[in-house]
Amino acid sequence: MLALVRIVSALALLLVATYYLLASIPFSYYHFLQFPHFWWMPLFISLHPLVMVAGIVGTVGTMPNVGGHQGSWRRYLAVGGLTSAALMTVTSLVPVLQSYETASALCFAPIVLLALAGAVEIVGHTGQEAARDSADGRALIGSAALAGVLVAGVYLLNAGFVRTGDARGLLPSEILIAGGASILGHVGLFVLGVGALAAIQAIGARRGWSSTLESLCLGGVVAALAGLALHRTVLVTLTLGRSRAIAVAVALGIAVVASWQALLVRRPLVAGGKADALRLTLLPIPRTGQGRALAATACVSLIGLSATILPRALLLADWGFALQKVLVFATWLASLMLILSLPDSRKARTVLACGLALAVTGTLAVATAHAREDQSPTAIGGVGPSLAVERYAMADTSVMVLLDLLRPVVADIDFYNTLRDQGDLTDDQSLRPRPLHLVEEMSSTQTYRPHIFVIVIDSLRPDYLSAYNPKVTFTPAIGAFARDSIVMAHAFTPYTGTALSQPAIWAGGLIQRFMYVKPFSAVNNLERLIVAGGYRSYISMDEILTLLLENRSRVHPLDSHIAHPERVEDAFKFDLCATLKELQSSLDRDAHDPAPVFFYTQPQNLHIRVLAPRWASLSRGPGAGVSDFFEPAATSLKRMDGCFGGFIEYLKAKRLYDDSVVILTSDHGDQYGEGGRWGHAFDMNFETIRVPLVIHVPERLLAGRPSDPAAVAFLTDVTPTLYSLLGYGPLSNNPLAGRSLLPSAGDPVDRPALFLLQSSYSRIFGLLPRDGDWFYAANANTATEQTFDFSQRGDEGVPRTLAPADRILYRKLLIERVAALGAYYRPNTTASR
Fold first, then answer.
1. Which 8-state DSSP code applies to residue 597?
2. pTM for this one?
């Protein structure tokens, strides 16, 4: 019973540490707050100091009185822990004390407490020797191999091949390659890990180590391996700084292992009166009778939960697969413990090995038979074994974790470290604002001021609009609007995430990665334009614009009822229909005001966190091949289309339409299961970087302005286009600034040969040429790179194998572009740190 209390207390402390870790990273825990899976988080945030106290009481109160100084250490730990809980309470009650830095510091308090409590208890038992058995190294390694096959088989079966019947778009040969690589990879990893521990125990037995020293050495190695695994998989996903990521990984590894071993020193004997330190490290229960049956049942339940049920439930709510990677580690541990809990007889293990081999072979055969035979070979041209494994990993998170562990060993780590360092040059709170002006002087050559309506539908993909995709039947109003407008066929976002994409629209150019350098007015060209033009603004003040806009003298905020801090469940979930209805009422109320209208909104109807509850209610899962579209997105967009069409009719009825610039676009795309990927925050590919961009311009402003709807356009071109249309110019030739899509005489029309793209939340950087025919992306967190060929329309989502010569060239060009951005905003820094 005491052991159970200790485990629950440790989990409570780790949950508090996780909360502060997420709270120290911009947008992370806000992301989780938006999903129904985490309905309990607001309550937990309010009560987490009490959870901390409960964890302290459960941990310190169950420490036995062993050793002369045990009582003193218990008091020290209690005082330190309760002091930390008091600081957490004060921070929660005083908003001015809440910051990323404070959360980062408080994250370590429960982790350090766990580590110290475990260490004190282990040291307190020093000298209490138990009779020991020497481990059978070959049997342990054999068990590890069986556990590896079990994990590979479970995840292969769960990858969705048999369930969906389309094998996630993989060819039969790719499934065989990836399945074989999965088996070899899992077996190799498990054998290597357990083999290293068995070697340490063999050395200890040969040299006569005490049981305490042996356990400490084994625990130290396990802690190091656990910290390394967490750092390379979960923490890089959270985009922590290198030093902080290492510190968190080391602290967590020590805390978890120390807590685990503190439980072992209480009951060092197995049935028969002898203990095997290595077996106890991996399986701290008796291996006979009822204990073995309970262990096997618990392990099977945990495997089913962590490998099958929870990953599906968290599919849309996860933050860059962070939670699913944690579940992979739980599955690995449960699988190894399950095999170790089984009898040692050679006959039983032979039967188990044959059964696993038949199950895995049968799964591979069924998956191959159900693979997509209709996939065009040309669409997969250039896909080699390594790329097949990468593609399969998106359906198998266990293989994804294996690749995370392997890549830093085989990848060119110097390139990724350089890319990370260059990218982080402008991700610094000490940065001072560096101005980015689109024009030298805010003086216009014309007096005519059109109304401006900018609608940025969060996560809207162009292939979900009839203006871009003839298969679409659910957006007739937007289609009619597009026929009366300029449709940029190849529009892209420079940032695959709202946090930087939306500010870049207002800046009209590439900005610092930090969120956000103040005053943002130094680069806020759109705000400068609407103030100089005397516009009365109607703006949906979301959490980003609340931080960015500084001159609100003529701003009428919309949707204030859902921007209230006490409405966490509805926070900033702007609905286009409700916003347009409120706007129309406001325009009718202010009809006497002669000032031109500026309107900006970014509705969230299509955001993955809004669609997630609707997807969960569907009778079938996404990607089942029964529709060309993700049903929740298509259904929501059909409703929005009706509201948008009604608003256009309103403008026409009020005789505003012919005097209005109306822009319909998105801040980024989204993934709806293509290649096993969901969301947009941690990937850069065809689905996430492409956006729609439809611009209606009054006829009187189009005269003499050339336009090229087939040219590559960026969201950073929206504000320069408005500057040009309103007569402000000539526009700057700064390579970081956008260009007018409808240039007037004197505006620069040249484009850089390569455009730099970035993720808003992760260290992913990409290159896109001005003809838009290909795309290259490098991920500095996972040490991966991909290239996509956009010239073959319809096959853009399939990555290509990167030729060695191209890899060298792309890496050089990417580093140059990232360094140039850093040099502009940090002019006193050198090219590298």
1. E
2. 0.83
